[in-house]
Design goal:
It is a single chain. The protein has about 210 residues and is an alpha/beta fold. It has five helices and seven strands. Strands 5-4-3-6-7 form a five-stranded mixed beta sheet, with helices on one face. The chain has a two-stranded antiparallel sheet with strand order 1-2. It is globular. The protein starts with 20 loop residues before the first helix and ends in a 10-residue tail after the last strand. The relative contact order is 0.22.
């Protein structure tokens, strides 16, 4: 699922009306995680200054380094340093959302493709899901529940690769999806050994030889 971003010009006026929190949460089910709806602290739409001059920042693209300093948890619920997961390894980092079946179903498809290519690629799945988490106290408070969901997904999908959880406040200019400029999920970043992005794949793919 992809969305052509709308860029607001610097100096442009932004709507000042507040939106109910529950309505915003429900709306996330139909929108890519990269969509910036409102600032979660005050319920108002962010202005251009708050998000660096435009509502949708330029996404992490080929030639950029993928940020690895975002908060990440393993399936044991313990916080980990994501940088160590990809350090020195050619990697495919796949951000997905557990609330959307097409995103979850893509995981096994990707794993089979990577295994078939035989490139010994470091395959990493990262759940960037916050749908419903505000009802549990926010993304960080929902970690134990999300970890249990990821454990179930790994079993049901028959995945052998590593899965991680990254709290993602999609309503904040500092949220993971905003920082990375994610426009839809799944989004997969192919990294070389120094962490530089080689390719970006947005949404489900018809994976073919040469993609990785």
């Amino acid at each position: 699922m992809q969305l052509q971003p709308k860029v607001w010009n610097k100096g442009g006026r932004t709507p000042s009306r507040a939106i109910p929190t529950l309505l915003a949460i429900a709306g996330l089910l139909a929108l890519p995680v990269g969509t910036c709806l409102a600032d979660s602290h005050d319920g108002l739409f962010p202005n251009a200054a708050q998000v660096g001059g435009q509502v949708y920042i330029d996404p992490v693209a080929p030639g950029n380094k993928l940020p690895t300093d975002f908060e990440t948890y393993g399936l044991d619920g313990q916080k980990i340093d994501f940088g160590t997961v990809v350090a020195g390894k050619r990697s495919l980092v796949v951000f997905f959302i557990s609330a959307v079946p097409v995103s979850v179903n893509e995981l096994k498809k990707i794993e089979k493709f990577v295994d078939a290519q035989g490139h010994k690629l470091n395959l990493v799945f990262v759940n960037a899901d916050t749908v419903g988490s505000f009802l549990e106290g926010g993304p960080k408070a929902a970690i134990p529940h999300t970890v249990r969901t990821m454990t179930l997904i790994k079993k049901e999908q028959g995945l052998s690769g590593a899965l991680y959880v990254a709290p993602n406040d999609v309503l904040s200019s500092e949220g993971l999806s905003t920082r990375l400029g994610i426009r839809g999920l799944p989004t997969s970043f192919l990294l070389n050994t120094d962490g530089t992005v080689e390719k970006v794949f947005v949404g489900p793919q018809n994976w073919k030889r040469g993609d990785i």
